[in-house]
Amino acid sequence: MNQDEVKAKLLAIEDAPLEFSLIFSGKQSRKVNGLYKPESREIIIHNRNFDDDNLLLYTAIHEYAHHIHACRRGGSLSSRAHSTEFWAIFHSLLELAEKKKIYRDVFANSPELLELAELIKKKYLLENGSLVKEMGKHLLQAHELCTAAGARFEDYVDRLLRIPRVAADMAIKMYQYDLDPRVGADNMRFLAGIRNDDERLNAAQALIKGRSPDTVRAGIRGGAEDEDPQLRLSKEKQRLERTIASLSRRLEEVNRELETLDQ
Fold this sequence. Notes:
The chain is mainly alpha-helical.
């Protein structure tokens, strides 16, 4: 594939609202396979890194996700390029590319990897999730016993169990919400933090259906990173001004303390 063919494939996956250029560097890089320059809207692929067109296309889709991300943010990107929103965009593009037969799903052609994935899901994710959920059941029982005995449950968690209170609270919520342990303990903690019942149920179903955690998280957050660029920058400006004011006050206090010590 040449660079024009790769760009055409990217646009066939999903059209971009802002124009971009895609360039083959003609070089090999030990550091990165590609990069995206938001200022000039350039995707640069170090094509000498690849002997396989599918792997090259994977990198191109990754960099294209940065461009789509920048488009959704008014043409700019924050310093944290690989955010939850970015990974959600990237995974969505990969799914679209696979459905359109533009990108080949390498996992589908590896029985060994698929078999190992099923083993990990059943033996570790499911069992671990089930254990944490069951622990939540017993912690809830302990909470009731503490109340009856006139003892503080927090003290029981701190001194007898010696586990973080947040972990104990999350385990109890996993049990109370009757979360599906197939998604694994880590995703169950994420689900337990969703207060809205419908949102939590939809997120759980999306995870079970195979959506990536970042994609689900981005959906739950309601596109917080997609807000109007001017409003986003205004909020950031206010945060920075508050931080500067706070640091200035602290600097004055330190100077006064130093002056006192010098006397």
